[in-house]
Structure formats: structure tokens, C-alpha cells
Amino acid sequence: MSCTARIKGIPQMPTVNARGGPALSYPIVYQATVGTANLPVLDVQVDEQGLALDGKVYRWLKVVFPNNTEGWVRDDLIEIAGDCSALGYKNTSDALVLAFSLSHEAPSVTLGRQGPDQGADEQEVRGIGGDVCLVTLTGDPNLPLVNARSGPGPNHGVIFQMERGTSRIYVIDVADDESGADHRWFNLAFPNGQTGWMRDDVIAIQGDCTPVGYEHLDEPVLASRAPRLSSEPVAVEPVAGTAPDSGCEGTVISTIPAKVRSGPNVTYNIVTTVEPNTVLPIDDSRAQDDGGDFIWLLVTTQEGQTGWIRSDLMRYQGDCADFGVVAASDDLYPSPMRRYFFTQGYGGINGHRGWDLALEDEAILSGPMGGRVVRAHPCSRCTPDKPAWRHHGIPYGDQNALRDPGWGWGYGNHVIVRYLHDRLPPSTRQKLAELGLAGHHLYVVYAHLKEMYPSVGDELTAETELGTCGDTGWSSGPHLHLEVRAGPNPDSMGSWLSLALLDPAVLFNR
Length: 510
Ligand SMILES: [Zn+2]
Known about the structure:
- The protein is mainly beta.
- Helix content is about 5%, strand content about 35%.
- It folds into four domains: about 5-100, SH3 Domains (SH3 type barrels); about 115-225, SH3 type barrels, CATH 2.30.30; about 250-320, SH3 type barrels, CATH 2.30.30.40; about 340-505, Glucose Permease (Domain IIA).
- The radius of gyration is 25 Å and the shape is globular.
């Protein structure tokens, strides 16, 4: 008996969506009635977005429906029976079994993104939107699974395995191989929420990988062969013994030890690492020396070593204005997403103009004191299966697309909320005064949304859900671009770009 399928579905739902490819990102091509049976199975592929249940990545089965339409159904919604060994399934029988529950040998594993997700992966470094470095598992062609380890070297234990082809993986950090091998290791956040380290020769990276020391990559490139940011790694010597107590301190907020380097760029040698939550005195600051977005801060460790830490790896307290970073305060707003990966920090008017917080479909919440929606702009050119410029072949930084309201001027679906001065946190009002913006109101854009709920004029109550984290407009992967500007007029924002651009840290903690 050849391999056939029956639509199982989920309780209460009379139909199951079949899609044009093996992921939810593909359009629906057919709605199959639960119970439809004897459907020939043509192919099996892993979920291209790497979505998983309990650590097991979904697969999709391509089947033929009674009207001869072909479509893909996820393996938790479909049962199979008969001889499915040619499709990689073991232990199938003449009895119907949920496909998700079967083990699979993976003779045909999809590598990387295909279909509508393929194409140049543009993103903004200097523009308004924002972007992230995304990883796809390439692995070893002879093995279906890739090992994730607990640290950056082969001496660390394997903590789980992930399917080759899994994509939409975020980079948390990059480190040199601890065993001294000529490799780098990537600490990765997988779509199912797990994190672990993988070596640079089993992953492809693309997008804005400059925060972790690689060039911007329009196409996926094996990380071990990806061009690194170039700059002369000449150590910048701090001036010895001349670091008075500046009154500004940083606390390491990265989830893993922060690297202290010999100069203000990721290309410099690592001097030492500092554990999360360590408090360090700040002695000096520099712009990243290759023109990159980040500010770097000179710190002295408890062991007396000096070196440079990238500013987005710490939060700040005390008198930090001279160093170009904004001190946090207990009274600030929480970040607009409860769960996220912080993928890019603020780089000023000529750099990255906000924060990027990444976690697809996560709810985006307004501030705790209410606010008024002054813009709720739907991206008319964004479609569910092709939300971003890159899906339409629009090049990185395209000026016409940036001028196009149909793309939300690059922001895609976006909401701008006005927060009145009188209702801002006291420390925010004080910082505005220090910046010469006393009495100004804040205008915050929440960009690249997938779902967008409010309308212009809505008065928001505390922590209203504005939408969900998406990938619309000038974006290389799902993330929220959060940008904060200040203006004197509460009733009219005026031109967005004419407003004063601020580090989101004036209003938000993270
Ligand atoms: Zn951004």
C-alpha cells in the first residue's frame, strides 16, 4: 500500500489550511475538510521557518487533494498510512498515524529558505527601519541534525540537536573557539526558544551582522567564509592612571559574559570578559572606529584591567551624558515587548536610529501611562506572504521605496504614539531638559508590524496592544524597530524627520 494521508485537523475546526510551501509564510492554496482521506503524498520537507513543538521541528507534507490541487499540510494536522519509507518515514503501517509523531530519516531536507522568502536580504544600517542578522543551519550534508553546545568550543557538551535547514535563527553573540581552533562560534536563539552554540562552518548568516563583526550580507554566506569587518586591529591604549571617578557606571546586561576589547571595535582582541550584572566604572567613550553605529566605553574591571565594551551591552547609571550614553532609571517605561532578542542598538542620526527587538508575533505594547495614536499607517504594498522589500526585489536602501507611502516609508505597517510631556517619567523629563528639549513631548514609532490594531486618534490606556512583531517594509527578518523623537507641539507632530532624534533609552528600559 502506497503512502496516503488523511486530514486530521484540530478540534472545533472543520477545515485545515493547505499552503503553497512548507511554512506558514506561504499563501493558503486550499482548505481541506477534516476527514478527507486517501490523499497521495508527494513530498516531505522541514518547516522552513524552523517552527517546532516541544523541540521537534515541524515537517510539511505535500499532498494531492480530490480536485487535483497540490498543497502543503503541517505534520501535526495530518495522518499517514501505508509504505512511506520513500519519503523518509520509518515504521509506518496500514493504520493511520499522526505524521508528527513518526520518526523521520530526512532523505530530503530543505536547505535554507525557498520560495517567496528567497532573494537578496536587504536591510538598513543607516536608514530608518532596521535589521537583524539571521542564521540558517547548513550543517553537514551527510547528517540531518546539527549539534548545539553549551559554550564556544568542542569541549562543551551537546545540549540539543536541530534540523539542517532550520532558519530564522537569531544571533546572540559570537566568540572565538575556546580550544584555540581557527573557528568562531555563534550563540544562537532558535525559533523554539532554545539557545546554544554552533560553529561557524555549519551555519549560514545573512543580514546586518555588523554588530557581531561581519559585513552586511545581502545573501546567505557560510559564516566561516563570511567577510569580516575590516579595520586595523591596533590596540588603543588608555591613558594610564588618569581615570578619575567619572560618576558614570555601566552594568553588564548581556545574557552571557561581555567581552572587553583592546579597542573600540569587534575586530580588536579580547582582553577579558565580564560576567552579567557586573558594575563597571566608565572612564571614556569613543565612536566605533570603522564608522559603525556603536559607541564603545572604556572600563576598568575589578581585576584592574582596562578595555572597551560596546555600549549596548550595558545599562547605565549616574552622570553619563558626557559619554554619549543615557543612564537608566527605575521610573522608565518597560520595553514594548515582554520577550525579545535585542539585536541592534542606537547609533545616532547617521547610524541606526533606534532599537531593534526581535521575536516574531510577540505582542507590542504601548507605554504604561497611556498615549495618543497620531499615525497608524498600513503598508499597502506589504502582503502576508511578501511583507518586506526583499520579497519584491527592492534593493537595500532604495530611495524610491523610502519615499513611498505604500511601503510606510520603509517602516512597513507602523504606529506612532504621542506621549505627553506631563505624563513622562520624571527622569525622562529631566533628560529632555538637559538636552535642551524642556517641555517637549515624545513621539515613538513602532515599525515593521505584522498585525496593527489601533487607529489614528485612539487614546490608549496603559499597555495597550498595538500589534505584533513582524517583517513589513525595509526589514530582513521579523523585528520591532523602536524609534523615539521629541517635538514641542502636542497637537501636531509635523514632519517626522524634523523632530529631534533620541536614544530610546531616554524613555525605555531594557
Ligand atoms: Zn531598526
